[in-house]
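Support reply, case 0932

Customer input (verbatim):
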Amino acid sequence: MANEDNYQRIWKTAKLIPAGKVASYGQIADLSGLPGRARLVGKAMGYAPKDMQVPWFRVLRTSGQISFPKGSDMAAKQKGLLQEEGVVVLNNRVKMAEFQWQPDLAELLFSLEY
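Our regenerated output:
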């Protein structure tokens, strides 16, 4: 399967993350039908077309950490976008236990395509 097809799957899945929630790269890979492809999810977020409005900023490391270097412009941008949605970011990290997206059965059956 071509990367473009995989990217489409990843983008569609990421767009389901509700405002105020976050997901890990691995979680998006799994929900996209691409287990073990967390790095591909990171790559796909970087290639997401602007007009598609993929909420790239809601995708974090499994630990809840922002992937961009602390103090970088992109880390600050991601932190700001998350905070606008009510997600608490402390020391470049989000408490996954509190803010991680946990799709319910209906979402898994009817929203996810994979």
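We compared this against your earlier run and they match. Two observations from our side: The chain has one domain: 3-99. The radius of gyration is 13 Å. Please reopen the case if you see a mismatch on your end.
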